[in-house]
Amino acid sequence: xxxxxxxxxxxxxxxxxxxxxxxxxxxxxxxxxxxxxxxxxxxxxxxxxxxxxxxxxxxxxxxxxxxxxxxxxxxxxxxxxxxxxxxxxxxxxxxxxxxxxxxxxxxxxxxxxxxxxxxxxxxxxxxxxxxxxxxxxxxxxxxxxxxxxxxxxxxxxxxxxxxxxxxxxxxxxxxxxxxxxxxxxxxxxxxxxxxxxxxxxxxxxxxxxxxxxxxxxxxxxxxxxxxxxxxxxxxxxxxxxxxxxxxxxxxxxxxxxxxxxxxxxxxxxxxxxxxxxxxxxxxxxxxxxxxxxxxxxxxxxxxxxxxxxxxxxxxxxxxxxxxxxxxxxxxxxxxxxxxxxxxxxxxxxxxxxxxxxxxxxxxxxxxxxxxxxxxxxxxxxxxxxxxxxxx
Length: 391
Prior knowledge:
alpha/beta; Aspartate Aminotransferase, domain 2; Aspartate Aminotransferase, domain 1; 2 domains; 12 helices; about 40% helix; globular
């Protein structure tokens, strides 16, 4: 039976028997409060409409590496969207932020990519210069780093993450406040909310059944995950996290998850000898829990396709060209002004290293990459010889 690595997280059969280890609220930094929301986009909507009450024409400064769907809440609020530059390792360009921030800037949006915190030195001075500008920290991709690095999420007025990026839950986002919490008229009985988390919950269980028995078609859980993703595009405004996710998020051993992810990352890093595939991050700091092993390669689409034939599925965050299997880098990001962003989008992919896998799976990934890279080298040599003969 071919090994399968990657894709949406499945949910084990005995999950309804799992005991609660602790409550997630115990991990909140001292003096912070939080609300458990249904997803990240809803968390942003709540900030814009009910807390900041942004006005039409006010500006949001966003990093020039975001997917199209992230812009939706800001467009709904008719905000002016301006992007700031990022460096080749996706760290923020402080000089560009300083040039673009102005009295009309109501929000500075920080995104901590793939578990690696943004350098925030210098941003505190900007806060003092522009006190009306709120800071939102998006730690969706760095949820477990937040448990290791206590500086993350403290600078911002708000910080939020999405649980399903790291653990198998059908929905859920924790929105953290560094100010007083608002009174909200909750409506958890919206039918689309029910359809969303129910579809994902069923899909996670069906994927587990498929992986362990192969008694059902693979397409069953794939279609359900896709259906849930489409529902998200017209998601209810302010639903709270489902009761299923509220129960599950307190059952995971997060210390163990962090350890496994770090071990897998370091195992790959120490054995990495592929000239055609370069890791995006040069090292793994002790306070980082990586979302995945992120790499850049000119042959991204070819390598990714070959890996998928061996059951290794590498997501792309985010694609430059619509290939029907991932979110797109926002078309609002100008190619001429932000060439680094578009270059990364054309070469990036993430190798799965999550808690489902151990050394055996990492060896399987390395073996297949060696095979693919060998084929690529042979193909290049063959092409070169063909060109010489032609001349």
